[in-house]
Amino acid sequence: MITAWAVTTGEAGMRTQARGLASAVADHVIEKTAPKGLIERLLRLDAAFAPPWPDVIISCGRRSAQFVVALRRRMPGRPLMVHIQDPRACAEAFDLIVAMEHDRIATGKRVLKVATALHDLTAANLAAAAQVWRARLAPLGRPLTGVLIGGSTARQAFTLEHGRGLLDCLRQVRSDGTALAIVPSRRTPRVVDEMLRHAFAQDAGVFHWDMAGDNPYRGVLALADRLVVTSDSVSMISEALATSATVEIFDFGTAHYGRFLSRMIERGWARRVNGAQWTPATRTPINATYEAAAAVRSLLEARTGSFG
């Protein structure tokens, strides 16, 4: 039985990436949070990082990388060390680094470059979400467009003007009778969320999650024929691409992710939102987590002579 620790700073996006990869390669996954402060002192005091030691440590985020490198010195054996994203100064300490194509780390023997972000979406959990949400979303009709809305980032504000632009796009989408399932997030500005809610308040063909009760995010991913995703989140776009739906990006100027967006569009995996003009996708789902998991399994097999 393979055991993996997924070590992050606790930030949701990092947890999803580390947990997703760990779950794809290990029978037993334990999530752990790298503490802040002086690493060596914390290692002596933190009972959460103690035997039994795992077979694999998967970390995500720069602080987590530094922590697990220090942690490994306490271990009598040597677990397989895998890091997601560029660990910067301690890259040589890892057996495998999984980085996106636009990350600055150079390619090499121990570096796997992937096209999209890792995540914990699988065919199985999408099917389970579809089962839960099918009856709730069925009254909206078909085709169904899921609208996944992020929000402001440290580099780019999601303004009311951006919200108006998104509303214009969604009105065009709705104009041909396409149903809408709108899913805001905690980062979505309240003024934008309220504007969208008010605009479609009397429309029986539009579902707008009120941020209460069960989160429909995975159900919408699983059931939508078309997905409109805001450009602020590489993770949301990557998760949308893991489905069989047509993926369209509402780009509100998040230049930091410009290279990522360009690559997705150039490859035909996504396009910028195009109002009412929609055709079903012909691509297969894209899931970089499977690619990374295959690389980790290969390293485990080389080390142990068997896997599982």
Structure notes:
The strands form two sheets. A six-stranded parallel sheet has the order 2-1-3-4-5-6, sandwiched between helices. It has a six-stranded parallel sheet with strand order 9-8-7-10-11-12, with helices on both faces. The protein is built from ten helices and twelve strands. The model has no long low-confidence stretch (mean pLDDT 89). The chain folds into two domains: 3-120 and 288-304, Rossmann fold (3-Layer(aba) Sandwich), CATH 3.40.50; 123-272, Rossmann fold. With 308 residues, it is α/β, with parallel strands linked by helices. It is 37% helix and 18% strand. It has helices spanning 12-25, 39-45, 62-72, 123-137, 160-174, 190-199, 217-223, 234-241, 258-266, 288-304, and strands at 3-8, 28-33, 56-60, 80-84, 96-100, 111-114, 144-148, 179-183, 206-208, 226-230, 246-250, 271-272.
Note the quaternary state here.
Answer: single chain
**Strand order in space, largest sheet:** 2-1-3-4-5-6
CATH topology of the largest domain: Rossmann fold
Q: How far apart are the termini?
A: 5 Å
CATH architecture assignment of the largest domain? 3-Layer(aba) Sandwich
How many H/I helices?
Answer: 10
**How is the main sheet built?**
6 strands, parallel
Strand content: 15-25%
Task: Estimate percent helicity.
Answer: 25-40%
Number of domains: 2
Mean of the pLDDT scores?
A: 89
Low-confidence stretches: none
* Structural class by sheet pairing and helices: alpha/beta
Shape: elongated
CATH class of the largest domain: Alpha Beta
Which homologous superfamily in CATH is the superfamily of the largest domain?
Answer: Glycogen Phosphorylase B
Q: Please tell me how large the radius of gyration is.
A: 21 Å
**Topology pattern, helix = H, strand = E:** EHEHEHEEEHEHEHEHEHEHEH
Give the beta-strand count.
12
